[in-house]
Amino acid sequence: MNEAPHVGLIGCGGWGKLILRDLKALGATVTCVAPGETSRANARAHGADVIVSSVAELPAVDGAVVATPSDSHGEVLLGLLPRNVPLFVEKPLTSDLASAQRLATMASGRIFVMDKWRYHAGIDRIARYARSGEIGDVLGLRLFRLGWSMTHNEVDPIWNLLPHDLSICLHILGEVPPVDAAFSDALGPASSGLVAMLGRRGGPRVVIETSAHHPVNRRSVILACTAGTVTLNGSLDDHLILRQGTPDDLDAPEIKVFFENEMPLKAELAAFLRHLRGGPAPMSSVEEGALVVERVCEIRRMAGLLA
What we know:
By secondary structure, the protein is of the alpha/beta class. It has helices at 16-25, 37-45, 73-80, 97-106, 121-132, 157-173, 264-276, 286-302; strands spanning 6-10, 29-33, 50-52, 63-66, 87-90, 111-114, 138-148, 179-184, 193-198, 205-211, 213-225, 228-232, 239-244, 254-258. It has two domains: 6-116 and 265-284, Rossmann fold; 118-262 and 296-302, Dihydrodipicolinate Reductase, domain 2 (2-Layer Sandwich). It has eight helices and 14 strands. Helix 4 (97-106) runs antiparallel to helix 8, helix 5 (121-132) packs across helix 6 and helix 6 packs across helix 8. The longest helix has 17 residues, at 157-173.
């Protein structure tokens, strides 16, 4: 396929309109399924080629992007499967383990999850440190995803925040380790945040702190290795902080490692369009998406929350 792919965009809310903006910037033809007046206004404002009111009205397309509320992902994806085209769905794959596992069984190689942090150049650079051994063997990861309030009301903040960090684990470590312990955040409503510990005996350890009830916004990732650490301090940063040596070396210098910080949303959509043209599949398969959902449910249970 050499011509511009024709993409169906299901949903054009606050995030969907940004997806539409980037799809159009990347040269795609986009038919937008926008049932409400707000979503239709977003679709018009951001350049949709065609706007329809339901998936049933969606014409033949080369692929589809699902940007509906998280609790509707399973139903929407199941409805799109008979079209037999690649599907790219906003994280999480679903907010329900049974539907995630069903999709993983039914749609291997056809559904991919939009884990934008796997397309962040800083995260990819950290993954290269983990794989190369340049600063020794991996000891573990510490991830912070903290902020004040959430705008997604269909699911609680943990479902919105935690899948990001689990996908970062997947990208850096090549796996999402088993859950060891978790407890809910005592600083706000139980469902607003938690601390989770993952890992297996003798392997890398992962500590994740996530909260929507924290007065200071923080998005940081720290990789600890036997001969140094490397840190991404913010999602918009254009550099990592590398500190070689051990904590006993008080004079170990901090070195800035710069990278080109292309917007991850645009990067992952470009990967999907390349796939529609016959290129490799995007990152985060449906099986990996289902694993993330499984881990979220495990962590929630250990923290005493409803799955």
